[in-house]
Amino acid sequence: MPTYEYECAKCKYKFEKMQPITAAPLTRCPKCQGRVQRIISGGAGFIMKGAARGAAEKSGGDCGLQRTGKTCCGRDERCGKPACGDGE
Question: Could you tell me the pLDDT band of residue 31, with boundaries at 50, 70 and 90?
Answer without folding.
Answer: very high
